Amino acid sequence: MTSYQDEGLLAVDALQVEQRYGEERAKRLRPEGDSQFIDISHSPEHQSFLDDPWVDPKTIKDVKSLFPDGRCKMLILGAGMGGLVYAVRMIQAGVKPEDIRVVDLAGGFGGTWYWNRYPGLSCDIESYSYFPLLEETGYVPKHRYSYGEEIRGYANLIAEKWGISENAAFQTKATKLVWYADSKEWTAKLEQKRNGEQPQELDVRAEYVVTVNGALNWAKLPGIPGLLDFKGDIFHAARWNYSATGGSPADPSLTKLEGKRVAIIGTGCTAVQIIPHLAQWAKQLYVVQRTPASVDNREQKETDEEWFHKEIAASPGWQRERMRNFHQHFTPEKQPEKNLIDDAWTHAQGLIGLTGTTHGPKTPDELPAYIKKLRELDLPRQNRIRKRVEEEVHDPELAKRLQAWYPSWCKRPVIHADYLTTFNRENVTLIDTEGKGLDSITSDSIVSGDKSYPVDIIICATGFRAPFTGTPAEKANAAFIGRDGISMSEAWGQKGPLTQHAVLDQNFPNLFLSGPWQGCNSPNYLFGVDTHAKHAAYIYAESQRRAAGKKFAVSPTPEAAENWSMQVAMHSLPMGAIIGCTPSYFNVEGGLDQVPPEMQMIMARSGLWGSGIEDFIDIVEAWRKEGSMQGIQVEV
After folding, report:
1. Would you give the distance in Å from CA 625 to the centre of its chain?
2. Phi/psi zone of residue 41: left (φ > 0), alpha (ψ -120 to 50 degrees), beta?
3. Please, where in the chain does CATH 3.50.50.60 lie?
């Protein structure tokens, strides 16, 4: 790893920065860890925060009509972009679209792009890389960074193009899956709750199940005393209430905020996009901050179609090569000659701490030196970002409070052109809680320390359940019961996953997974899902060929699953950079630091492939090319 700054000067600065990082981290550590948040899906008294403001009841099919004989060939849990990509890869592998059923709690396709429709919503990964299947659809994204409405429209385009649109059970979830070895199929208990109707349950049989429940899908609230006492409008950003603010997903004219006092809780990726729009319309905006965002600049532009076809999509396989180039900027051993993307992400080499590297530590003793080197590599970028705050925020004291003191890999980096300058407005007040959060909420105010701020509207931009915790079953808020009646939560809790390449678990045949457990990670999370989907589709197609028309159960052999689990553990040390980070969902609000010794091996076996996503892809592609399906058993 190379640093682009004089090492003598850097050493002095690095010591000071490391001390400051520790001080700021200490402010955010709380003994209750992740339980400081309210997981809305598990809290009956907060269920109204999950009401769907977008659903059109007339478009929701009766779940029973989609399963006339109580069966389907392939059941996909999740109608987001990941679920759609998985469906397409399976269709390309030979599954007929009419044999697929997609299940989702939402009222339409899109996943996070269905739920999130707040003003300013856009993707932080450039659209030419983020949009999947661009070569197959021929679609040209309208902007370098696409806005939410366009992405949601693209999800519907995929569903239409591949014949998935009519095969979705919306406002429906799977509450339990049970594997039946004799018939080689799963029974899924589905529950549909359509607006204004009594819930109905249905048991369906499926030969194969795919679980793609997304990275950030279960909204959470801050556990602030008095949250439910507030008498004004209060909502989570993932359920934006335009009836209270004015405007619409297509028109962020928040006219109803004129004359209103608004508080937004949170300063993460979501809040950074929302805040400039609130400031434009509200009489007074209070921004409640625990940890400052690390905000780099974003250079947005419209896409010129002629340029796109000439410079971007000029040859077959261009999108894969573009993603390879993107990843190589976090892979010190494979730095590209040319930066095809040239944005804030590709100038953030410190993100190696999130993606992993083959040049990482091989023993625990090497971890401290590795983290030290990562911090040296990362320091010029973070210094530049802190300098940007000083340049754009006029008040020097306010600028200090908006500077981020943690490494790039500790929180998802934010890119935005207008966030920082918003704090120069007279109607915007930063409530810096020094890592603690608000003390309480009353019927008409928010309270921080000894100050009370009367407000009319509260917006909770407080994120989602930590994406890399639990199991796929818990991500789905469901029970998965596999071989010999073992639950996934029990099995993974005892030994961690037992997968082959992250897509099939030995105890759960015919259940295709989407990662990230024991798989790859990319800042472009959707690319990681597609990587797993392609691999699963190959295994499905090859298993079909070998079964010669008979029903089959496909899973890793016990030996292969144990071997892969140990390989994941052996390659896990580069991911240890997250230990000691400022609390965030990446480290479960500091909870990873507290894992007892007897659980550390399970955590290592359950983690990400620590040698980086391109190394993972090299392994699975070589495995497919070899062609023997080594480690996979197909039982007929």
Report:
1. 30
2. alpha
3. 61-217+466-572+607-635, 223-298+393-460
Q: Which residue in this structure is represented by tokens 């940007």?
A: 388
Dihedral sign, CA of 11, 13, 17, 19? Answer: positive
| pTM passes above 0.90 | yes
Where does 352-471 have alpha helices with state H?
Answer: 352-355, 367-392, 396-401, 419-422
pLDDT tens digits along 530-559? 999 999 999 999 999 999 999 999 999 999
pLDDT in tens, 176-235: 999 999 999 999 999 999 988 899 999 999 999 999 988 888 999 999 999 999 999 999
CATH hierarchy code of domain 223-298+393-460: 3.50.50.60
Nearest to 135 by CA among 309, 340, 338: 309
Query: How many whole angstroms separate alpha carbon 615 and alpha carbon 476?
Result: 29
Q: Can you list the alpha helix ranges (DSSP code H) found in 282-418?
A: 305-307, 318-328, 352-355, 367-392, 396-401
CB–CB of 223/439 below 8 Å?
no
Average pLDDT over the chain reads 95
Give DSSP secondary structure letters for 129-193. HHSTTHHHH----SBSS-BHHHHHHHHHHHHHHTT-GGGEE-SEEEEEEEEETTTTEEEEEEEE-
Tell me the one-letter amino acid at 259.
Answer: G
CA distance 388 to 393: 8
Phi first, then psi, for residue 337 (nearest 5°) are -70, -35
Query: Could you give the CA distance from residue 451 to residue 439 in angstroms, rounded to a whole number?
Result: 10
Tell me how far apart the alpha carbons of residues 3 and 9 are, in angstroms, rounded to a whole number.
12
Query: What is the per-residue burial (b if ≥16 Cβ within 10 Å, else e) of 85-109?
Result: bbbbbbbebebebebbbbbbbbbbb
Whether pLDDT at 4 is above 50 = no
Q: Which CATH class is domain 61-217+466-572+607-635?
A: alpha beta
Report the alpha-carbon distance of residue 421 to residue 276 in Å, rounded.
9
Q: Is 306 left (phi over 0), alpha (psi -120 to 50) or beta?
A: alpha
DSSP 268: S
- Residue 217 is predicted with a pLDDT of 86
| Residue 75 token pair | 């059941």
pLDDT at 8 over 80: no
Q: Residue 276, preceding bond cis, omega within 30 degrees?
A: no
Rounded to whole angstroms, what are the CA distances from 409 to 189, 354, 416, 568, 607?
A: 39, 6, 18, 20, 16
DSSP category for residue 304: P
Distance CA 187, CA 240 (A): 36
Torsion (CA) 467, 470, 474, 476 in degrees, nearest 10 = 30
Tens of pLDDT, residues 304-361: 999 999 999 999 999 999 999 999 998 777 788 899 999 999 999 999 999 999 999 9
Nearest CA to 513 out of 486, 488, 547, 544 is that of: 488
d(CA 270, CA 414): 9
Is there a contact between 86 and 540 (Cβ–Cβ < 8 Å)?
no
**DSSP per-residue letters across 584-595:** SGGGTTTGGGG-
C-alpha distance from residue 543 to each of 94, 163, 234, 509, 629 (Å)? 12, 24, 51, 12, 9
